[in-house]
Records
---
Amino acid sequence: MNVGTAHSEVNPNTRVMNSRGMWLSYTLSIGLLHLILLSIPFVSVPVVWTLTNMIHNLCMYLLLHTVKGTPFQTPDQGKARLLTHWEQMDYGVQFTASRKFLTVTPIVLYLLTSFYTKYDRVHFVVNTVSLLTVLIPKLPQLHGVRIFGINKY
Amino acid sequence: MAAGQQWVLVEMVQAFYEAPAYHLILEGILILWIVRLLFFSKTYKPHETYKLTEKEKEDLIEEWQPEPLVPPVSKDHPSLNYDVVTGPPSHKIIINGKECTNFASFNFLGLLDSDRVKDKALASLKKYGVGTCGPRGFYGTFDVHLELESRLAKFMRTEEAIIYSYGFATIASAIPAYSKRGDIIFVDEAACFSIQKGLQASRSFIKYFKHNDMEDLERLLKEQELEDQKNPRKARVTRKFIVVEGLYINTADVCPLPELVRLKYKYKVRIFLEESMSFGVLGEHGKGVTEHFGVNIDDIDLISANMENAVASIGGFCCGRSFVIDHQRLSGQGYCFSASLPPMLAAAAIEALSIMEEDPEIFSVLKRRCSQVHQALQGIPGLKLVGVPFSPALHLQLERSSGCRSSDLQLLRSIVDHCLDRHVALTVARYLEKEERFMPPPSIRVVVTVEQTDEDIQKAVSCIREAASIFLR
């Protein structure tokens, strides 16, 4: 797919999260995930909420902070080959609208989860660790940072 | 039912009142973080360029001196005084009104004037018109293009070939299609200008090795291997290429291909071979430097050549395995975004290929003439001959350079003028002085074609000798 032709966007990955309907579909898919987990019999409500939180954070970490590069060839000879999707968003500009939205949603989900798990200690530990794996890579200080060389190439 | 739900909610709110302090503190911090994000953060780009103060800006504006849009150039700059050719650049070429024997155009096999080629081109012109008015993907693919591609693939005994409409753009599009940022290319110092532009466009790491020096190349490859061992994860995503030419246009010698193939398999790099000068020249059937050395064509990953030399058409082609060539159909910039080759030139190229296939004798005739000219040009006092005996484009360099390139060029130009007056057309090898990475020394390029007779060669050699004795005291 030779990308920079039909529109002049060099790397369309940067504008994916700003596209029409993306935020709504994201929220709705979290709701759908929650509904599916709720339909599993013999699982209590706190466990379901913790599972929702964990699966959401796991998917977010894998898709935004692990997978690197683009699925298509870009005309800039592979500038974004070693960048994760979060780093590619809006060409690296920090605190744009999409970035703020994607930072706030895990926090809101965490607040809801801690309410529905009745502030239980075990659930607290699990959910907080999960939240931290998703919040810390989003800090601007960690832009392009690869700790211990993990996921560098 | 409603009472049951309300009962659960009361339990929830009760749990909130009994929540542990650390948890509520953490939640408070998170809510403050959200507030900060939403209301107190500004978008900015990290690694922003160094911000100049007002004073620094004023200083820079003060110091700036405007340069003229067109820099002053002397009136006798060679690019402003060019020789005008009237008529075709065939064996007898009319330069500035004088008919001369052509020792300058790359018409190695004499196919420029071939009646068969001209007839086929005229028939094609009548059938298709002149241009294609579109790139290959946009109704610019004609049956002649497909036929030429399949004929070239069959001729070179590879799986597939792809045609470009401009010879310079062939290798300059092929290299950046495969090699991107972070990849490593090992290239010979004497690589031609189109290769250099391709390397520049690829944005890869370029490592130059000394011309035809396989030990230097091996040293570079060994260093790279050591680095790869230190960082195997990086090595796994780095592609490595070697780019060489079959017959070098700047130095008229041949690359040591069997040695390169051995290095390829030892250090796991891919070879891109640029065969513009050797296609239709070297080898028993004109298949190029692979046939010349007896190397299996499957060992070379990509062969690129332009059809503007021996084939006497326009454009270029790349050939290799289908897996490799197909990639260029979407990623070769010169293929996707330029109008395709005019059909009459494609038809001319097909006919030229047919002539080359039917009559492989011409290659041995050319080889004989090359060695004849090479022999005859030896021992001219003041000039040294550079090139292998079977190269059709030889270089005559000054034995002793005056130290200044422009005066050397003027000296060579005066030799060429002398020969032009005696109806022998030669040319000084021209380069873009500011753009070349490694400037070759100034030289006169002597081209051998099959159409030159013994008398022509003798006359040319005596003219050059005469000129050298006059000007090079």
---
Amino acid sequence: MSIDLPAGSPPARVAFYNDPKVRSIAYQVALCAVIGFLVYEAASNAIANLERARIASGFGFWHTTAGFDISQTLIAYSAQASTYGRAFWVGLLNTLLVAGIGIVIATILGFVIGIARLSKNWLVAKAASGYVETIRNIPLLLQLLFWYNAVLKALPEMRDSYKIPGGIFLNNRGLFVPEPIFGNGFSFVVIAFGVGIVGSISFYVWARKRQEQTGQQAPVFSVALALVIGLPLAVLALSEFPLTFEYPQGGRFNISGGIEVLPEFAALLFGLSIYTAAFIAEVVRAGILAVSHGQTEAAYSLGLRAPPTLRLIVVPQAMRVIIPPLTSQYLNLTKNSTLAVAIGYPDLVQVFTGTVLNQTGQAVEVVAITMAVYLTISLATSLLMNVYNSRIALVER
Amino acid sequence: MNRIFAILALAVVFAAQSASAQTLKTVKDRGMLNCGSNGTLAGFGLPDAQGKWTGLDVDSCRAIAAAIFGDANKVKFVPLSAKDRFTALQSGEVDLLARNTTWTSSRDTSLGLNFVGVNYYDGQGFMVRKTLKVNSALELNGASVCVQQGTTTELNLSDFFRARNMQAKTVTFATANEAIKAYDAGRCDAYTTDASGLYAERLRLANANDHIVLPEIISKEPLGPAVRHGDDQWFDVVKWTLNAMINAEELNITSKNIDEMTKSTNPDIKRFVGTEGNYGEQLGLGKDWAVNIIKHVGNYGEVFDRNVGAGSLLKIDRGLNKLWNKGGIQYAPPIR
Ligand SMILES: N[C@@H](CCC(=O)N[C@@H](CS)C(=O)NCC(=O)O)C(=O)O
């Protein structure tokens, strides 16, 4: 047996089994084989035992009619016509919805509070640190229960709903807003929106280049606003508003029609965002403090005022410190959304490892699928954040 | 979290253990019966402030301990929520499940359970606030209904509305506690569960008199104890403990007169108390297995009465649960 060595390296003087490289590869192969064998043994034993106990196994349940209702469904779902597989997707989308919006709110809130904590204004700084210390130190589950009960107790019954101008209703069954129905010609508005976005990006690129060359600044923000919002609105007006609304209507028990925001969703969203924001605030504060004060002083001595100093000098450098721990906060928020179970929000765990597992009795399969899903969501989030991180990371010249 | 651990444990158990088909021996060696029961439902399974458990299902477990050990206290009760109960039984965490569980075909087959019989014939009902002025479940079109997940209740609810072309807004909670609290806070117009459960849960509401139970019973809910597939001897022990309690009531054997009954010359009673035949031995138990059940726990009628019937807070009518010869459908095969 011979081993290929990279060209130019000295010929091996030791026997191949004493070569550390060969040894380490051999150990790893052996370890993989042992682990593989154990996994195989465990899996086949589990299958045999399930069979002996005559407990159903396999993934056939995926296509069986579900038969139970779900309170919030982003895709069409009905108890009689949809399958357990469909219920899985409903639950997954509900998880992604609350996690996605939660991440946006928590990030904004966290940045504001993190920066506020460093404010020279005594009251602002103390209020921000009070927020962080209180929220961080109370278990999330308690906060969720608090928010849920606060939401339910504070809002009136259906008959005494708060009516907000524009056809909006608010009561202890949720928030009901008119649902836009897009008529003919609405596609032009969508196209205008797309054009607006592309236009804004091009303008930004152009403005940057010009600034680099001439030092002149352009009003990027106002131009972008006009393009992204003004342009579609103008098209909407020109095409005579092909947009109607379905208004929520009071019935005997409930308000129906329109878009419904459930109290369970609101409570979970508040709870998750407010809790995670406290951690993000600390991450942001630490990131900003990590940028040496000399940078700020240098910016000031170049004549930059405080806001552009923060925006152009401090934050970009702080981001390098902030991104990695921020990623784990995003992952925490997503995983914490499984506490939905406690307040009746139909997330993936509530629907799938709750009802579906119980009705099918197929714990092993259902839990394996659920774990795979959370793993995928987490890895995807990390991947995105890592890509972003490597883009803003310090480039050594 | 606990739940995830329980399920991981289940996976490990399935992977590692070769199915033990010797539950009776295991229980005897352990000196203790592990009984999966309801921890929050008055009348069926509920520990009091001193940690003493009471309930119809609790007494079913005590009766088994009495039959095996001659001591009704050798039971460890494991409180289980509706959605976790089957996993707990499948994984061997409990020896049997006596937790107001409805006997259905899928649970009996693909979930790997064997139901031993019915200790309470129940059906699903609705409770609403009186201020709604609803008199029938058929008027509930468009209502929000709070329900507990992992139950037949959840499925019946959707069937009931579907079959009548009505709409319901179902809000599903993991435990009865959460569901009833949300109902009490006004989140739902109606709360639905087994009728027996409605009586019990009503007592937990802030103001029980503001709520009424609607007349409709929308399903069959035969509740009974269940064991795992694959252990016939244990299945028999649990099954015949329940049958003994029902037969005792029919034979007028009670916890008060059991000592005199051991001297009876009636052949049915002689077989029951073990002075004739070896029916206890056939089950793998002692001769006086049935005597111990009645002496330490009581017959079915006594147990019903003190837990859910006239002698309890719930005061539920015996109804279907009367003996077959008294106008009900409780009927046990004979011991012989
Ligand atoms: N009999 C039904 C329902 C059983 C059930 O879980 N009932 C509820 C309401 S009566 C309960 O016991 N909840 C108590 C708890 O989960 O703590 C079934 O087997 O699915």
